[in-house]
Design a protein that fits this description.
Structural class: alpha/beta
Number of strands: 9
Strand content: 5-15%
Order of helices and strands: EHEEHEEEHEHEHHEHHH
CATH class: Alpha Beta
Number of domains: 1
Bound molecules: fe (ii) ion
Helix content: 40-55%
Shape: globular
Strand order of the largest sheet: 3-5-6-7-8-9
Distance between the termini: 22 Å
CATH superfamily: Metal-dependent hydrolases
Number of helices: 9
Length: about 260
């Protein structure tokens, strides 16, 4: 599996606090069978407009990234490490020309909306990035409190964005609403990727997510969401379409007594 959304870089955001936390994360990734990880610390797009602060933060991340690479080489040499950012779109048209800001230096950029809320200008903001030559991958749309419109998600994709759901959402780690939205995206064929959004707490849960998708009859979808499409992203290629998930019906016993997702 390949993960391009996590907070493994030590000491720069709310992910791994220090080298020990990063090592714990690297080992957890390897233990789940993750073969490549793109580390994506948080970055507010508005910071890019303030050269001094921008250079200071990017310099801190550069140094911490070098520490992560050294730790990875020592602890998990078979885990491929790349870098990027999770860019919060708190300004409409950020300059993402610095390849460090994009996923593994490709044209893909991981973006999120501020305040865990879909803004009214979400569609135009995505289109603007696309016009500037970058391909937005929207992180965890299912986690936005006001996301209740799958038609909007389809429109974002038509405007050139791709959608990344969190493994934890599918597993119910963010509550029933995010869980149902995440599965709803899959059922409509609107999700392109699934990623860990690992914050150095608990497990990446990609293996658990893969098992849950397989149990729901989505083995082929799991392979694209958790591996194939991310591999294509690392090569600068667009994702392959993920077929709408037609979930296997739970057994009669589960339907009567509860359980399932
Ligand atoms: Fe994140």
């Amino acid at each position: 599996m390949i993960d391009f959304h996590n907070h493994l870089i030590p000491g720069v955001d709310d992910g791994a606090a220090d080298a020990a936390g990063a090592v714990e994360g690297l080992r957890a990734f390897a233990a789940e069978g993750i073969t490549a990880a793109v580390a994506t610390p948080h970055l507010r797009a508005s910071l890019l407009e303030r050269a001094g602060e921008r250079d200071e933060y990017l310099g801190q991340v550069d140094a911490a990234w070098a520490r992560l690479v050294a730790l990875g080489g020592a602890e998990c040499p078979s885990l491929r490490l790349e870098r990027g950012f999770e860019v919060m779109l708190d300004t409409p048209a950020p300059d993402l020309s610095d390849p460090r800001l994009r996923l593994a230096g490709t044209q893909f950029v991981l973006v999120e909306f501020p305040f865990m809320s879909v803004p009214p200008n979400a569609g135009p903001a995505i289109f603007e990035l696309k016009l500037n030559g970058w391909t937005p991958v929207l992180a965890h749309p299912e986690r936005y409190g006001n996301f209740d419109d799958f038609a909007a998600a389809a429109e974002w994709r038509q405007r050139g964005a791709y959608l990344q759901v969190n493994c934890g959402s599918l597993l119910g780690r963010y509550g029933p609403e995010a869980r149902d939205r995440a599965w709803g995206l899959l059922e409509r064929g609107l999700a392109d990727y699934a990623a860990s959004d690992y914050h150095a707490r608990g497990a990446p849960r990609m293996a658990e997510c893969r098992a849950a998708l397989a149990a729901a009859g989505g083995e082929a979808q799991a392979d694209l969401l958790l591996r194939g499409n991310a591999a294509r992203l690392l090569d600068g290629q667009p994702p392959l379409p993920v077929a709408p998930l037609r979930r296997a019906r739970p057994s009669l016993i589960k339907r009567i007594f509860g359980g399932g997702r």
